[in-house]
Write a structure and sequence with these properties.
The protein is an alpha/beta fold and 282 residues long. It is 29% helix and 20% strand. Strands 3-2-1-4-8-6-9-7-11 form a 9-stranded mixed beta sheet, with helices on both faces. A two-stranded antiparallel sheet has the order 5-10. α1 (13-24) packs parallel to α2.
């Protein structure tokens, strides 16, 4: 079973360089099936490619501008098509730095490959949550989708219900909240570490995050130099606080309505067919 890593890069090479420096300190990076950067067409495209080469990644030009909504789904689909030996794909971003044990954490999570209750593995607990003293070895089950700041999933989850229900139209909530509804409808959870393994650095130039919003997306306790540890599943919700988390928990409780009147890129029939292949474990 192999892991492939794909990163989406747009037109912010300064953030990309910081992110690649963090990946350079990741243990086990040399053992992944592939480490590829999907490069959007822009005036700094060549600089982005040079950074990829400098840090040992393979740049793959998109040949155009796919945008933040389509780029992730195309990148993950490409990775599964291109690398049959990869059963798990990690989707990274140019402005999301990582901890040194991020791949060890994803490798540990492979024990849930046949646990149908787990849909995805996230590197970050739900944004807006706080933990006074996060435990380095603690991993939690989060209903729906924990956080888009770096995550991964298995080939069967991707092909059976995540890709077919991807929200390409970016309606009110966006693809990450849509994915949360899809996972909850299917009775799936995310795995998320109590001590975040990723952090956001993209203060300027992002599609969604403004400089005013940026402080809310940063974990002041984030560490890149984490030791090797024995991860373990612990109970989660009672340990967390944060209005965003409580709001998300309540919103997910009504996620069965997510596709009641769906239109555009994702239809209710498509979602229903995809989800019917995954019996609910809730």
């Amino acid at each position: 079973m192999g892991i492939a890593v794909v990163m989406t890069a747009y037109q912010r090479p300064d953030y990309l360089e910081q992110t690649l420096k963090s990946w350079a300190g990741v243990r086990g990076l040399a053992d992944v099936v592939s480490q590829t950067i999907h490069v959007e067409q822009s005036s700094v495209e060549y600089r982005v490619k040079c950074l990829a080469w400098e840090y040992g990644w393979s740049p793959r030009p998109n040949g155009g501008r796919l945008g933040v909504l389509v780029n992730p789904v195309e990148s993950v689909s490409w990775a599964f098509r291109s690398y049959p030996e990869a059963d798990f794909v990690v989707i990274a971003e140019e402005d999301v730095v990582v901890a040194s044990d991020i791949l060890e954490y994803f490798q540990w999570a492979q024990r849930f490959r046949y646990d149908e209750s787990v849909g995805v593995v996230c590197a970050h607990r739900p944004q807006g949550t706080t933990v006074a003293q996060p435990r380095t070895d603690a991993v939690l089950r989060v209903p729906g989708f924990s956080c888009p700041l770096l995550w991964g999933t298995w080939r069967d989850r991707w092909e059976d219900f995540i890709e077919p229900t991807w929200d390409r139209d970016y309606r009110a909530d966006g693809w990450d909240w849509n994915l949360g509804r899809v996972l909850k409808m299917a009775g799936k959870c995310s795995l998320a570490p109590e001590q975040n393994r990723s952090d956001h650095i993209g203060e300027e130039g992002g599609a969604h995050c403004t400089p005013a919003m940026f402080p809310e997306t940063v974990d002041p306790g984030f560490r890149t130099d984490l030791p090797v540890c024995e991860y373990q599943i612990v109970e989660g919700p009672a340990l967390w606080s944060g209005s965003q988390y409580q709001t998300r928990w309540r919103s997910l409780s009504g996620c069965g309505r997510a596709f009641a009147g769906a239109s555009g890129g994702t239809s209710g029939r498509t979602a229903g067919r995809a989800l019917s292949r995954w019996p609910s474990s809730s």
